[in-house]
Amino acid sequence: MATPKLEDAEFRTFQKIIFKEAGIDLNDTKKILVQSRLLKQLMKYGFETYTEYLRLVQINQLEKTEMVNLLTTNETYFFREIEHFEFLQKKILPHYRPKGKFRVWSAAASVGAEAYSTAMLLDSVLSKTNWEIMGTDINTEVIQKARVGLYPESWVEKIPMDLRKMYCLRGKGENEGKFLIDRSLIPNMSFEQANLLELSSSLGQFDLIFLRNVLIYFDNATKQKVVDGVIDHLHAGGYFFISHTENLNMINIDQLEQVQTAIYRKKG
Ligand SMILES: C[S@@+](CC[C@H](N)C(=O)[O-])C[C@H]1O[C@@H](n2cnc3c(N)ncnc32)[C@H](O)[C@@H]1O
Are residues 92 and 164 part of one domain? Predict the structure, then answer.
């Protein structure tokens, strides 16, 4: 059987679905990417065209979730954009006076590297009763991986040596070549599937929110909706981190003041 080819009209339908479901604005240069990421689903079901797969996605919610999983880009690593972790360590934590738990939200958490990097820093200076971290992502598969906290050994290299010694366990047996996040951090962490377009008020309020390397996938109207929704969950005086490769130039951020590049604070 010849490899199925994604036709322009089929691609436009996938573009519409992923935009509606996740707000992701897949431009026309992404056609080959969509074709190759979804090919394995065609193989799985024995479909010869993307139209057959589209029909399935449109009637089957589980397959739609799988399609969203396949079309999101989940690249991440520990201590990514180290400036944010230095700011947390040097500028935020020294001024923190316990009045409740210090709550952090990794709002596009992927497999959890951002959340666990933060957990290592918080746990090394705060008592276990004084912090908690939530990680959310639209992709159900990465959330499962984040809950497990098992990573390829090469990922450990980005973790500072002192924290590596305290919080990373070398995998043995079937986990050879991997490392596991120390279980002592797990009770303070939770990972849930959540769509940034449809946030629930039950998330509560946070002292620090990471929304990094996800705004690039959104158009300006979606960016505005997502940023407004996310900062509704930020305490007054709380911190908001975006990626150094992203900006908020084209949206209204009256509620925020910029502290330094890619770091904002909620007014009030
Ligand atoms: C490139 S990763 C960024 C991971 C991490 N924040 C970092 O900076 O390393 C982007 C993540 O955003 C998630 N994402 C995309 N659209 C989303 C949406 N509408 N709601 C929630 N998560 C979304 C993707 O599934 C992906 O895991």
Answer: yes
Question: Ligand 1 pocket, 195 CB below 6 A?
Answer: yes
From the alpha carbon of 22, which atom of ligand 1 is closest?
19
Q: Is 103 a catalytic residue?
A: no
Inter-residue contact 17 to 57 (CB < 8 Å): yes
Q: Out of 66, 214, 246, give the residue to mutate to test ligand 1, the one with the largest number of ligand atoms within 8 Å of its CB.
A: 214
Q: Per residue in 10-35, pLDDT tens?
A: 999 999 999 999 999 999 999 999 99
Could you tell me the residue range of the domain that residue 25 belongs to?
A: 8-71
* Lookup: tokens for 42: 């065609």
Examine the domain organization and report whether 251 and 146 are in the same domain: yes
Number of separate helices (H) and strands (E) present in the chain: 9, 10
Q: What is the pTM of this model?
A: 0.97
Distance in angstroms (rounded) separating the CA atoms of residues 254 and 107: 21
CB burial of residue 131 (10 Å; 0-12, 13-18, 19+): buried
137 is catalytic: yes
